[in-house]
Amino acid sequence: MKNAPADRKTIEENILFIRKIMNDTKRAELKSGPIIIFWGTLIALAQGATFFLLTGDYSDYIWPMWGIIALIGATGTFFLARKIELQNTFSERVLSTTWLAFGISAAVLLFLSPFGKSGVLDHGTGINPIMCLLLGMAYRIMGIVYDRRWISYIAYCWWAAASILFAFPGDHSFLVFAVCMILFQVLPGLKILGEYRKELASEKGVSNE
Amino acid sequence: MNNFDYNKLDEVIHARIRLGIMAALVSTLSMDFGRLKKQLETTDGNLSVHLKKLEDAGYIHVKKSFVDNKPCSTYSVTGEGREAFGKYVEQISRLA
Questions:
Q1: Which of A29, A165, A176, B48 is deepest in the core (most CB within 10 A)?
Q2: Is residue B62 part of a domain?
Q3: How high is the ipTM of this complex?
Q4: Per the confidence metrics, is the pTM higher than 0.80?
């Protein structure tokens, strides 16, 4: 039996269609890059500022600064989420819940824990390794949801950073945390954004074929 | 091109909308009705009919819940559906 040209055309169209739908679905789930970069940059700056305020004897300004950071973070996330139109998929719900849980845990640690009550930064360096542990958990989950092994490996980087900061506590931990934020949050966010743009470009290529 | 009996293709998946549904669902954990409709650029009625057909074939699973007091149907592909889709893609890839 010889395949009719019309059938062959249908088959080719179906293959392109499958590729388009699958790319579109996967691409939609990589949209969160800008939010990851935004938070990474914001927290890195805040941690750096905390170090300088602490060592420069301006600790009174630390609390108001973190209040402002929280406000900027919440507002920025709200607008970014609207702009990039996060999809209501199960994956997105898992991720948004994971990051929300991280945010609540971080806020409790920062504002309500004994660290905070005692005037955060007298004993506050202990917060940084705990934050690293929580970030490790979040990245482990994100790696599974995005189905990208390299994201899962970032979790181990965060846990390694936590171990180092537990072993060597001190004011410098704010700076170390800021550097970790750039390495393990901003850079991965840029990579996720790059992958999103790459898939978007290849998608346009497919649709132009 | 190899000779191939087109009747061997899985008719449940071969229809364009159902193919799109399967392609979308195998690429993610699950997807709600609204997102599927947007992605496949189809109507509520058309999508419902095709979803039902896939559900009857055991290829997808539906979970009905309420979000903000509104009914929400979330679809995911079953193991059987994933296997059938993989087989279908393999068959048409050989033909192209």
A1: A165
A2: yes
A3: 0.73
A4: no
| CA Rg value for chain A | 22
Residue of A nearest to B18 (CA): A18
Hey, of B7, B29, B62, which one would you mutate to test binding to chain A, going by the most A CBs within 10 A of its CB? B29
Is residue B63 situated within a structural domain?
yes
Cross-chain CB nearest to B39 (options A8, A21, A94): A21
CB contacts of B66 in chain A (<8 Å) are none
Say yes or no for a CB contact (<8 Å) between A22 and B27. yes
Per-domain boundaries in chain A: 7-208
Residue A47: closest CA among A119, A118, A114, A132? A132
Structurally, how many domains does chain B consist of? 1
Query: How far apart, in whole angstroms, are the C-alpha atoms of residue A165 and residue B44?
Result: 54
| Residue at A149: amino acid letter | R
Check B31 against A145: CB less than 8 A apart.
no
By the 10 Å C-beta count (0-12 exposed, 13-18 middle, 19+ buried), B7 is classed as exposed
Q: What pLDDT digit, counting tens, does each position of A140-178 carry?
A: 998 887 778 899 999 999 999 999 998 988 888 899 999
**Is B3 part of any domain?**
no
pLDDT digits (tens, 9 = 90+) for B71-81: 888 898 999 99
Range of the domain at B84: 9-95
Closest chain B residue to A18, measured at CA: B23
Alpha helices in chain A (DSSP H): 5-28, 33-55, 62-84, 90-107, 114-117, 127-146, 149-167, 172-181, 187-208
CB pairs under 8 A between A and B: 73
Contact B95 A8 (CB under 8 A): yes
Determine, yes or no, domain membership for B1. Answer: no
